[in-house]
Amino acid sequence: xxxxxxxxxxxxxxxxxxxxxxxxxxxxxxxxxxxxxxxxxxxxxxxxxxxxxxxxxxxxxxxxxxxxxxxxxxxxxxxxxxxxxxxxxxxxxxxxxxxxxxxxxxxxxxxxxxxxxxxxxxxxxxxxxxxxxxxxxxxxxxxxxxxxxxxxxxxxxxxxxxxxxxxxxxxxxxxxxxxxxxxxxxxxxxxxxxxxxxxxxxxxxxxxxxxxxxxxxxxxxxxxxxxxxxxxxxxxxxxxxxxxxxxxxxxxxxxxxxxxxxxxxxxxx
Length: 269
Description:
Elements: H1 2-22, H2 24-49, E1 51-53, E2 56-57, H3 58-78, H4 80-87, H5 90-96, H6 101-126, H7 136-161, H8 167-183, H9 196-202, H10 206-222, E3 235-236, E4 239-240, H11 243-268
Helix pairs in contact: 1-6, 2-3, 3-6, 3-7, 3-8, 3-10, 6-7, 6-11, 7-10, 7-11, 10-11
């Protein structure tokens, strides 16, 4: 049973990575929007806004959020492969094969996480062009966080994909879901400066904890971390979350979403 489970994860993950390598348009399309935000939106507002807080200008503040957005875009839309497989009949062939259904879902999540991480690493390579210094030590710290964020947000896509029968319907719903997730996560502005209703809604958004964790890791590397003056941390019942608390919350949400997606996937087919 364990052998079948791990074999399922390997087979599906390998297929997702192979598809990603062959379809370079997916990489280009997912990469252009974050670059546009960084170059046009970031550079333009950086002069207008200046420093968000002592030692951190607008581009430095926004870059971890754009990194998270790049990863999440790939993660959410990686679930499109489920709809595509269902629509063209490949999913039925996959289900009658001696593979674990839980392994299939986890394999797709892992495949989506790895391909999304590639997008994130490419964006990190672009950072010095806009004046952000990236050290090898920082990259090593960021990779596990990027993978966790990607797997967790894949769960959102899989829960939606379990009910969808067409690619057009899935993409329509995902476009509706994607923008609230992005704008309620603090990618472009400190959540502490928003109305109370926005701050409350943001706490139910899993991406919020991923963005904040990435931002705290970045600020630690810049040696400007100070929760009394920096727009970081999420206030929950008067307590400001740390990196590890954000990671814990994100992990719990990810496990719950994957369990729901696996259950829905089993019921639907």
